[in-house]
Amino acid sequence: MDSQLLAHETFHAAAQHDGHQTAAVESRIDEAVAQAVINAADYRFWESRYGWSTGGIAAALGVPAGSLEPTGENSPNSNRK
Q1: Model's pTM, two decimal places?
Q2: Which among 69, 73, 2, 70 is positioned nearest to 37, based on CA atoms?
Q3: What angle do CA 43, 25, 48 make, to 5 degrees?
């Protein structure tokens, strides 16, 4: 099992989720996982290469593209300096 998937499912377990979740819940879990596992320096490096292409940044970091908002508001770069 890959580490991103394991982290995703661990966050579900910590939140005591049981069974299928809505798309909104899945998005919140993806964001929480991204915040927990993405190194801010790595994010800034890939952001300098891809600009605001969250798809490119996410692919480089190995996280779901939906876990990074286009505005960068939920990026590790905005919360961890």
Answers
A1: 0.62
A2: 2
A3: 15
Supply the range of the domain harboring residue 43.
Answer: 3-79
Note down pLDDT in tens along the chain; length 81 residues: 577 788 889 999 999 999 899 999 998 888 888 888 888 899 999 999 999 888 899 899 887 777 776 444 555 545 444
Question: Around 6, how many Cα atoms within 13 Å sit in the side-chain half-sphere?
Answer: 4
Domain total of the chain: 1
User: Could you tell me how many helices (H) and strands (E) the chain has, helices first?
Assistant: 5, 0
Q: Answer whether 50's CB lies under 8 Å from 56's CB.
A: yes
